[in-house]
Design goal:
Blueprint (H helix, E strand, L loop, with lengths): L16 H16 L3 H11 L4 H16 L1 H9 L11 H16 L4 H16 L1 H15 L3 H8 L7 H8 L4 H11 L29 H8 L5 E5 L6 H6 L3 E2 L6 E4 L9 H4 L3 E3 L2 H12 L8 E4 L6 H11 L4 E6 L2 H11 L7 E4 L12 E7 L14 H4 L2 H21 E11 L8 H8 L5 E4 L17 E2 L2 H4 L5 E7 L1
Length: 484
Protein backbone atom coordinates (compact mmCIF):
# COMPACT_ATOMS: atom_id res chain seq x y z
CA UNK A 1 0.00 0.00 0.00
CA UNK A 2 1.33 3.46 -0.87
CA UNK A 3 1.93 5.94 1.95
CA UNK A 4 0.73 8.75 -0.32
CA UNK A 5 -2.74 10.29 -0.02
CA UNK A 6 -4.59 13.13 -1.80
CA UNK A 7 -3.39 15.51 0.89
CA UNK A 8 0.17 14.18 1.03
CA UNK A 9 1.51 13.47 -2.42
CA UNK A 10 5.13 13.06 -1.22
CA UNK A 11 6.14 10.42 1.33
CA UNK A 12 7.35 11.70 4.71
CA UNK A 13 11.13 11.88 4.93
CA UNK A 14 12.68 9.58 7.49
CA UNK A 15 14.59 11.19 10.35
CA UNK A 16 18.35 10.93 10.51
CA UNK A 17 19.20 7.74 12.37
CA UNK A 18 22.13 9.13 14.37
CA UNK A 19 20.16 12.14 15.56
CA UNK A 20 17.34 9.83 16.55
CA UNK A 21 19.67 7.72 18.67
CA UNK A 22 21.13 10.84 20.29
CA UNK A 23 17.67 12.15 21.12
CA UNK A 24 16.63 8.87 22.74
CA UNK A 25 19.77 8.86 24.89
CA UNK A 26 19.14 12.45 25.96
CA UNK A 27 15.59 11.51 26.93
CA UNK A 28 16.89 8.64 29.07
CA UNK A 29 19.15 11.08 30.91
CA UNK A 30 16.71 13.97 31.39
CA UNK A 31 13.48 12.02 31.91
CA UNK A 32 14.64 8.82 33.55
CA UNK A 33 17.67 9.99 35.53
CA UNK A 34 20.05 7.90 33.45
CA UNK A 35 23.79 8.46 33.15
CA UNK A 36 24.91 9.78 29.80
CA UNK A 37 28.03 7.61 29.49
CA UNK A 38 26.19 4.37 30.29
CA UNK A 39 23.12 5.13 28.18
CA UNK A 40 25.21 6.29 25.24
CA UNK A 41 27.58 3.32 25.28
CA UNK A 42 24.62 0.93 25.35
CA UNK A 43 22.90 2.74 22.49
CA UNK A 44 26.04 2.76 20.34
CA UNK A 45 26.43 -0.99 20.82
CA UNK A 46 22.78 -1.82 20.18
CA UNK A 47 22.52 0.44 17.13
CA UNK A 48 25.95 -0.65 15.87
CA UNK A 49 27.17 2.89 15.42
CA UNK A 50 30.90 3.27 14.98
CA UNK A 51 33.48 5.57 13.46
CA UNK A 52 32.16 8.96 12.37
CA UNK A 53 28.57 8.11 13.24
CA UNK A 54 29.54 7.19 16.81
CA UNK A 55 31.62 10.35 17.16
CA UNK A 56 28.77 12.51 15.83
CA UNK A 57 26.27 10.86 18.16
CA UNK A 58 28.60 11.28 21.13
CA UNK A 59 29.04 15.00 20.47
CA UNK A 60 25.29 15.47 20.04
CA UNK A 61 24.59 13.82 23.39
CA UNK A 62 27.44 15.13 25.50
CA UNK A 63 27.38 18.61 24.01
CA UNK A 64 23.64 19.07 24.39
CA UNK A 65 23.70 17.89 28.00
CA UNK A 66 26.84 19.85 28.86
CA UNK A 67 25.48 23.16 27.55
CA UNK A 68 21.88 22.56 28.60
CA UNK A 69 21.61 25.48 31.04
CA UNK A 70 23.12 27.93 28.58
CA UNK A 71 20.84 26.77 25.78
CA UNK A 72 17.82 27.11 28.04
CA UNK A 73 18.73 30.78 28.60
CA UNK A 74 18.80 31.29 24.81
CA UNK A 75 15.58 29.36 24.25
CA UNK A 76 13.81 31.38 26.93
CA UNK A 77 14.38 34.43 24.71
CA UNK A 78 13.13 32.60 21.63
CA UNK A 79 9.92 30.95 22.88
CA UNK A 80 6.80 32.97 23.64
CA UNK A 81 5.96 31.04 26.82
CA UNK A 82 7.97 29.90 29.84
CA UNK A 83 10.16 26.88 29.19
CA UNK A 84 8.53 25.18 32.18
CA UNK A 85 5.29 25.09 30.17
CA UNK A 86 6.88 23.17 27.28
CA UNK A 87 6.65 19.41 27.17
CA UNK A 88 10.01 17.93 28.22
CA UNK A 89 10.22 15.99 24.94
CA UNK A 90 9.88 19.21 22.96
CA UNK A 91 12.44 21.04 25.10
CA UNK A 92 15.02 18.28 24.57
CA UNK A 93 14.51 18.50 20.80
CA UNK A 94 15.06 22.27 20.92
CA UNK A 95 18.23 21.83 22.98
CA UNK A 96 19.54 19.23 20.54
CA UNK A 97 18.89 21.54 17.62
CA UNK A 98 20.46 24.51 19.38
CA UNK A 99 23.66 22.59 19.99
CA UNK A 100 24.00 21.76 16.30
CA UNK A 101 23.42 25.37 15.32
CA UNK A 102 25.76 27.02 17.80
CA UNK A 103 28.58 24.61 18.62
CA UNK A 104 28.85 22.10 15.77
CA UNK A 105 29.91 22.40 12.16
CA UNK A 106 26.45 21.63 10.86
CA UNK A 107 24.87 23.73 8.11
CA UNK A 108 22.06 25.81 9.62
CA UNK A 109 19.49 24.80 7.01
CA UNK A 110 20.36 21.13 7.42
CA UNK A 111 20.25 21.32 11.21
CA UNK A 112 16.79 22.92 11.26
CA UNK A 113 15.42 20.63 8.56
CA UNK A 114 16.69 17.47 10.27
CA UNK A 115 15.30 18.54 13.65
CA UNK A 116 11.89 19.30 12.13
CA UNK A 117 11.86 15.85 10.56
CA UNK A 118 12.90 14.26 13.87
CA UNK A 119 10.19 16.21 15.69
CA UNK A 120 7.52 14.86 13.34
CA UNK A 121 8.70 11.31 13.94
CA UNK A 122 9.06 11.59 17.72
CA UNK A 123 6.24 13.85 18.92
CA UNK A 124 4.09 14.62 15.88
CA UNK A 125 3.52 17.04 13.04
CA UNK A 126 1.78 19.58 15.30
CA UNK A 127 5.00 20.51 17.15
CA UNK A 128 7.23 20.67 14.08
CA UNK A 129 6.17 24.21 13.23
CA UNK A 130 7.25 25.51 16.63
CA UNK A 131 10.59 23.71 16.37
CA UNK A 132 11.15 25.21 12.94
CA UNK A 133 10.34 28.75 14.11
CA UNK A 134 12.37 28.62 17.31
CA UNK A 135 15.47 27.08 15.74
CA UNK A 136 15.39 29.64 12.94
CA UNK A 137 15.48 32.35 15.64
CA UNK A 138 18.42 30.61 17.30
CA UNK A 139 20.27 30.42 13.97
CA UNK A 140 20.12 34.20 13.51
CA UNK A 141 22.88 34.74 16.10
CA UNK A 142 26.23 33.09 16.78
CA UNK A 143 27.06 31.61 20.17
CA UNK A 144 29.06 34.71 21.09
CA UNK A 145 26.21 36.98 20.04
CA UNK A 146 23.72 34.99 22.09
CA UNK A 147 25.96 35.18 25.14
CA UNK A 148 26.29 38.94 24.67
CA UNK A 149 22.50 39.17 24.45
CA UNK A 150 21.59 36.98 27.43
CA UNK A 151 24.46 37.00 29.94
CA UNK A 152 25.02 39.80 32.46
CA UNK A 153 28.04 42.03 31.99
CA UNK A 154 31.34 40.38 32.89
CA UNK A 155 32.39 43.63 34.56
CA UNK A 156 29.28 43.98 36.72
CA UNK A 157 28.68 40.28 37.46
CA UNK A 158 31.61 38.06 36.54
CA UNK A 159 30.16 34.83 37.93
CA UNK A 160 26.75 35.42 36.36
CA UNK A 161 28.46 36.01 33.05
CA UNK A 162 30.56 32.86 33.37
CA UNK A 163 27.48 30.81 34.26
CA UNK A 164 26.11 31.50 30.76
CA UNK A 165 29.37 31.75 28.82
CA UNK A 166 30.91 28.58 30.33
CA UNK A 167 27.75 26.52 30.98
CA UNK A 168 28.06 25.94 34.74
CA UNK A 169 25.49 26.69 37.44
CA UNK A 170 26.47 29.76 39.43
CA UNK A 171 26.69 27.88 42.73
CA UNK A 172 29.24 25.48 41.20
CA UNK A 173 31.34 28.37 39.90
CA UNK A 174 31.28 30.00 43.34
CA UNK A 175 32.53 26.77 44.95
CA UNK A 176 35.28 26.38 42.34
CA UNK A 177 36.39 29.98 42.82
CA UNK A 178 36.61 29.42 46.57
CA UNK A 179 38.61 26.20 46.12
CA UNK A 180 40.99 27.94 43.73
CA UNK A 181 41.46 30.83 46.16
CA UNK A 182 40.06 33.35 43.70
CA UNK A 183 37.98 36.32 44.74
CA UNK A 184 34.59 35.46 43.19
CA UNK A 185 33.73 39.06 42.40
CA UNK A 186 37.08 39.85 40.78
CA UNK A 187 37.26 40.64 37.07
CA UNK A 188 40.61 40.93 35.29
CA UNK A 189 41.39 44.62 34.59
CA UNK A 190 40.17 45.79 31.21
CA UNK A 191 38.31 42.54 30.52
CA UNK A 192 34.71 42.31 29.47
CA UNK A 193 32.58 40.82 26.75
CA UNK A 194 32.76 37.14 25.93
CA UNK A 195 35.56 34.58 25.88
CA UNK A 196 35.89 32.59 22.64
CA UNK A 197 34.15 29.23 22.83
CA UNK A 198 37.48 27.44 22.40
CA UNK A 199 39.12 29.34 25.25
CA UNK A 200 42.30 29.69 23.15
CA UNK A 201 42.63 33.48 23.48
CA UNK A 202 42.62 33.75 27.28
CA UNK A 203 45.28 35.86 28.92
CA UNK A 204 48.18 33.73 30.22
CA UNK A 205 47.40 34.53 33.84
CA UNK A 206 43.87 33.22 33.36
CA UNK A 207 44.77 29.85 31.87
CA UNK A 208 45.33 28.24 35.25
CA UNK A 209 42.49 29.98 37.01
CA UNK A 210 38.73 29.75 37.22
CA UNK A 211 38.06 30.26 33.53
CA UNK A 212 40.67 27.69 32.61
CA UNK A 213 38.94 25.18 34.89
CA UNK A 214 35.51 25.87 33.40
CA UNK A 215 36.89 25.49 29.88
CA UNK A 216 38.56 22.20 30.83
CA UNK A 217 35.24 20.92 32.19
CA UNK A 218 33.73 21.56 28.77
CA UNK A 219 36.30 19.50 26.89
CA UNK A 220 35.79 15.82 26.20
CA UNK A 221 38.14 13.76 28.39
CA UNK A 222 40.58 11.25 27.01
CA UNK A 223 40.09 7.54 27.63
CA UNK A 224 42.68 6.64 30.28
CA UNK A 225 43.63 3.07 31.15
CA UNK A 226 45.34 1.57 34.17
CA UNK A 227 47.72 -1.38 33.90
CA UNK A 228 47.30 -3.35 37.12
CA UNK A 229 50.84 -4.23 38.26
CA UNK A 230 51.76 -7.87 38.42
CA UNK A 231 49.24 -8.89 35.76
CA UNK A 232 49.76 -6.16 33.15
CA UNK A 233 52.05 -3.23 32.38
CA UNK A 234 52.01 0.00 30.40
CA UNK A 235 54.16 -1.53 27.64
CA UNK A 236 51.38 -4.01 26.89
CA UNK A 237 48.84 -1.20 26.59
CA UNK A 238 51.17 0.86 24.42
CA UNK A 239 51.64 -2.15 22.14
CA UNK A 240 47.84 -2.24 21.82
CA UNK A 241 47.73 1.33 20.56
CA UNK A 242 47.78 3.50 23.71
CA UNK A 243 50.41 6.01 24.80
CA UNK A 244 52.01 6.19 28.24
CA UNK A 245 50.27 8.44 30.74
CA UNK A 246 51.66 11.70 32.05
CA UNK A 247 51.80 11.22 35.81
CA UNK A 248 50.89 7.71 36.96
CA UNK A 249 53.39 4.91 36.32
CA UNK A 250 50.44 2.65 35.52
CA UNK A 251 48.53 4.96 33.12
CA UNK A 252 48.10 4.77 29.37
CA UNK A 253 45.87 6.88 27.14
CA UNK A 254 43.79 5.94 24.10
CA UNK A 255 44.42 9.18 22.23
CA UNK A 256 41.95 8.47 19.45
CA UNK A 257 39.26 7.11 21.74
CA UNK A 258 37.60 3.91 20.66
CA UNK A 259 36.37 0.93 22.63
CA UNK A 260 38.89 -0.01 25.35
CA UNK A 261 37.28 -3.43 25.54
CA UNK A 262 39.02 -4.33 22.30
CA UNK A 263 42.31 -4.48 24.23
CA UNK A 264 42.88 -7.94 25.63
CA UNK A 265 44.28 -6.71 28.97
CA UNK A 266 41.13 -4.63 29.54
CA UNK A 267 38.74 -7.36 28.42
CA UNK A 268 40.38 -9.83 30.80
CA UNK A 269 40.46 -7.46 33.80
CA UNK A 270 44.24 -7.23 33.92
CA UNK A 271 43.84 -3.56 33.03
CA UNK A 272 40.92 -1.20 33.34
CA UNK A 273 39.56 2.21 32.49
CA UNK A 274 40.55 4.67 35.21
CA UNK A 275 41.26 8.40 35.27
CA UNK A 276 44.86 9.23 36.02
CA UNK A 277 43.83 11.28 39.07
CA UNK A 278 42.13 8.24 40.57
CA UNK A 279 45.30 6.25 39.99
CA UNK A 280 47.44 8.90 41.64
CA UNK A 281 45.45 8.99 44.90
CA UNK A 282 45.52 5.19 45.16
CA UNK A 283 49.26 5.12 44.50
CA UNK A 284 49.77 7.88 47.08
CA UNK A 285 48.07 5.79 49.76
CA UNK A 286 50.15 2.75 48.76
CA UNK A 287 53.47 4.63 48.95
CA UNK A 288 53.00 6.58 52.18
CA UNK A 289 55.61 5.46 54.71
CA UNK A 290 54.51 3.22 57.55
CA UNK A 291 56.49 1.10 59.97
CA UNK A 292 56.24 -2.64 60.61
CA UNK A 293 53.25 -4.56 59.20
CA UNK A 294 51.96 -3.63 55.77
CA UNK A 295 49.83 -6.50 54.54
CA UNK A 296 46.23 -5.62 55.39
CA UNK A 297 44.51 -2.88 53.39
CA UNK A 298 40.92 -1.65 53.39
CA UNK A 299 38.86 0.07 50.68
CA UNK A 300 35.97 1.36 52.75
CA UNK A 301 33.74 2.67 49.90
CA UNK A 302 34.78 0.36 47.09
CA UNK A 303 32.13 0.45 44.36
CA UNK A 304 32.47 0.26 41.44
CA UNK A 305 35.98 -1.00 42.16
CA UNK A 306 38.47 0.84 39.96
CA UNK A 307 40.68 1.84 42.89
CA UNK A 308 40.14 -1.57 44.48
CA UNK A 309 41.64 -3.23 41.42
CA UNK A 310 44.77 -1.10 41.58
CA UNK A 311 45.13 -1.41 45.36
CA UNK A 312 44.70 -5.19 45.23
CA UNK A 313 47.42 -5.43 42.60
CA UNK A 314 49.73 -3.25 44.69
CA UNK A 315 49.15 -5.07 47.98
CA UNK A 316 49.74 -8.36 46.16
CA UNK A 317 53.33 -7.27 45.64
CA UNK A 318 53.68 -7.20 49.44
CA UNK A 319 52.01 -10.59 49.95
CA UNK A 320 49.05 -8.79 51.47
CA UNK A 321 45.27 -8.76 51.21
CA UNK A 322 42.68 -6.14 50.30
CA UNK A 323 39.27 -5.98 51.93
CA UNK A 324 36.75 -4.02 49.85
CA UNK A 325 33.46 -2.87 51.36
CA UNK A 326 30.40 -1.79 49.37
CA UNK A 327 26.83 -1.42 50.68
CA UNK A 328 25.00 -2.13 47.38
CA UNK A 329 24.96 -5.67 46.03
CA UNK A 330 25.14 -4.77 42.33
CA UNK A 331 28.08 -2.43 42.93
CA UNK A 332 29.80 -5.12 45.01
CA UNK A 333 29.56 -7.35 41.93
CA UNK A 334 31.33 -4.64 39.94
CA UNK A 335 34.10 -4.64 42.55
CA UNK A 336 34.45 -8.41 42.22
CA UNK A 337 34.66 -8.01 38.46
CA UNK A 338 37.51 -5.51 38.86
CA UNK A 339 39.35 -7.98 41.11
CA UNK A 340 38.79 -11.06 38.96
CA UNK A 341 42.23 -11.03 37.34
CA UNK A 342 44.16 -10.13 40.50
CA UNK A 343 45.71 -13.12 42.30
CA UNK A 344 45.26 -13.49 46.04
CA UNK A 345 42.48 -14.01 48.56
CA UNK A 346 40.99 -10.52 48.46
CA UNK A 347 37.64 -9.98 50.14
CA UNK A 348 34.56 -8.12 48.93
CA UNK A 349 32.08 -7.44 51.74
CA UNK A 350 28.55 -6.12 51.31
CA UNK A 351 28.09 -3.79 54.24
CA UNK A 352 27.92 -0.29 55.66
CA UNK A 353 31.34 1.28 56.05
CA UNK A 354 30.07 3.44 58.91
CA UNK A 355 29.29 0.27 60.91
CA UNK A 356 32.43 -1.87 60.78
CA UNK A 357 32.17 -5.61 61.37
CA UNK A 358 35.91 -5.83 62.04
CA UNK A 359 37.83 -4.83 65.19
CA UNK A 360 39.22 -1.30 65.49
CA UNK A 361 42.81 -0.96 64.31
CA UNK A 362 42.60 -3.90 61.89
CA UNK A 363 44.24 -2.34 58.84
CA UNK A 364 47.57 -0.85 57.87
CA UNK A 365 46.23 1.33 55.07
CA UNK A 366 42.66 2.53 54.54
CA UNK A 367 41.09 4.25 51.56
CA UNK A 368 37.94 6.29 52.21
CA UNK A 369 36.86 7.36 48.73
CA UNK A 370 33.57 8.74 50.00
CA UNK A 371 30.33 9.38 48.10
CA UNK A 372 30.33 12.98 46.91
CA UNK A 373 28.72 15.39 44.47
CA UNK A 374 31.05 14.31 41.66
CA UNK A 375 31.76 17.92 40.68
CA UNK A 376 35.33 16.93 39.94
CA UNK A 377 34.27 14.73 37.01
CA UNK A 378 32.05 17.11 35.06
CA UNK A 379 34.05 16.38 31.92
CA UNK A 380 32.88 12.76 32.05
CA UNK A 381 29.38 13.34 33.40
CA UNK A 382 27.96 16.23 31.38
CA UNK A 383 24.53 15.97 32.99
CA UNK A 384 25.82 16.15 36.58
CA UNK A 385 26.29 19.92 36.68
CA UNK A 386 22.56 20.49 36.10
CA UNK A 387 21.41 17.54 38.19
CA UNK A 388 23.31 18.32 41.38
CA UNK A 389 22.23 21.03 43.84
CA UNK A 390 23.81 22.74 46.87
CA UNK A 391 21.45 20.68 48.99
CA UNK A 392 23.09 17.49 47.72
CA UNK A 393 26.43 18.67 49.07
CA UNK A 394 24.92 19.48 52.46
CA UNK A 395 23.09 16.14 52.65
CA UNK A 396 26.24 14.13 51.90
CA UNK A 397 28.32 15.87 54.57
CA UNK A 398 27.24 13.75 57.61
CA UNK A 399 27.91 10.52 55.69
CA UNK A 400 31.33 11.74 54.59
CA UNK A 401 32.29 12.60 58.17
CA UNK A 402 31.01 9.27 59.47
CA UNK A 403 32.96 7.33 56.85
CA UNK A 404 36.18 9.21 57.54
CA UNK A 405 35.76 8.68 61.28
CA UNK A 406 35.20 4.96 60.67
CA UNK A 407 38.24 4.81 58.40
CA UNK A 408 40.49 6.32 61.06
CA UNK A 409 39.16 3.91 63.68
CA UNK A 410 39.79 1.01 61.30
CA UNK A 411 43.46 1.95 60.88
CA UNK A 412 46.02 0.67 63.38
CA UNK A 413 48.27 3.08 65.26
CA UNK A 414 50.94 4.12 62.79
CA UNK A 415 48.71 3.23 59.87
CA UNK A 416 47.49 5.72 57.27
CA UNK A 417 44.13 6.79 55.87
CA UNK A 418 43.52 8.46 52.51
CA UNK A 419 40.38 10.59 52.51
CA UNK A 420 39.45 11.01 48.84
CA UNK A 421 36.67 12.76 46.95
CA UNK A 422 36.07 13.40 43.27
CA UNK A 423 35.01 16.94 44.13
CA UNK A 424 36.89 20.18 44.77
CA UNK A 425 33.97 21.68 46.69
CA UNK A 426 35.43 22.99 49.97
CA UNK A 427 32.53 21.55 51.97
CA UNK A 428 33.39 18.06 50.74
CA UNK A 429 37.15 18.26 51.13
CA UNK A 430 39.14 20.05 53.83
CA UNK A 431 36.02 21.02 55.80
CA UNK A 432 35.18 17.34 56.31
CA UNK A 433 38.74 16.50 57.35
CA UNK A 434 38.93 19.41 59.79
CA UNK A 435 35.57 18.55 61.35
CA UNK A 436 36.52 14.92 61.96
CA UNK A 437 40.03 15.60 63.25
CA UNK A 438 38.67 18.24 65.63
CA UNK A 439 36.78 15.46 67.42
CA UNK A 440 39.73 13.07 67.72
CA UNK A 441 43.08 13.20 69.47
CA UNK A 442 44.47 10.04 67.87
CA UNK A 443 45.00 11.21 64.28
CA UNK A 444 46.89 13.92 62.45
CA UNK A 445 47.00 15.38 58.96
CA UNK A 446 50.27 14.86 57.06
CA UNK A 447 51.74 16.49 53.98
CA UNK A 448 50.63 14.41 51.00
CA UNK A 449 52.46 16.38 48.32
CA UNK A 450 55.66 14.26 48.39
CA UNK A 451 53.50 11.28 47.41
CA UNK A 452 52.90 12.86 43.98
CA UNK A 453 56.45 12.99 42.58
CA UNK A 454 56.81 15.05 39.44
CA UNK A 455 53.28 16.45 39.60
CA UNK A 456 53.36 20.29 39.71
CA UNK A 457 50.89 22.85 41.05
CA UNK A 458 49.88 20.92 44.16
CA UNK A 459 49.25 24.03 46.23
CA UNK A 460 50.29 24.85 49.78
CA UNK A 461 49.37 21.46 51.26
CA UNK A 462 49.24 19.48 53.38
CA UNK A 463 46.36 18.05 51.32
CA UNK A 464 46.37 17.73 47.53
CA UNK A 465 43.83 18.93 44.99
CA UNK A 466 44.23 17.82 41.39
CA UNK A 467 42.59 19.85 38.60
CA UNK A 468 41.45 19.20 35.02
CA UNK A 469 43.00 22.44 33.74
CA UNK A 470 46.34 21.99 35.52
CA UNK A 471 46.87 18.23 35.51
CA UNK A 472 44.49 16.90 32.86
CA UNK A 473 42.83 14.69 35.48
CA UNK A 474 39.51 14.72 37.26
CA UNK A 475 39.49 17.12 40.20
CA UNK A 476 40.48 14.50 42.77
CA UNK A 477 41.16 15.53 46.37
CA UNK A 478 43.32 13.63 48.88
CA UNK A 479 44.07 14.20 52.53
CA UNK A 480 46.57 11.83 54.18
CA UNK A 481 45.82 11.11 57.84
CA UNK A 482 47.96 9.05 60.18
CA UNK A 483 46.52 7.19 63.14
CA UNK A 484 48.68 8.09 66.16
Amino acid sequence: MSDRSPRNRAPQRRPDRVRGVAYQVIRQVTAEGGYANLALNKALREQRLSGRDAAFCTELVHGTLRWQGTYDAFLARSVSRPLADLDPELLDLLRLGTHQLLRMRVDSYAAVSEMVTLTRAEIGQKRSGLVNAVLRKISQRTLTQWIDTVAPSAVEDRLGHLAIAKAHPRWVIEAFAQALGEEPAATPPGRGGVEPASGQDRLPEESGGLEGLLDADNEAPRVTLVARPGVSDVDELVAAGATAGRWSPYAAVLEGGGDPGRIDAVASGRAGVQDEGSQLVAVALATAEIESADASWLDLCAGPGGKSGLLAALVNQRDGQLTAVEPLKHRAELVRSNLRAIPGEHKVLIGDGTKPTWPAGSFDRVLADVPCSGLGALRRRPEARWRRTPEDVAELRPLQEDLLDSAITSARPGGVVAYVTCSPHPDETRAVVDAVLAKRDDAKLEDARPLFPGVPDLGDGPDVQLWPHLHGTDAMYLALIRRT
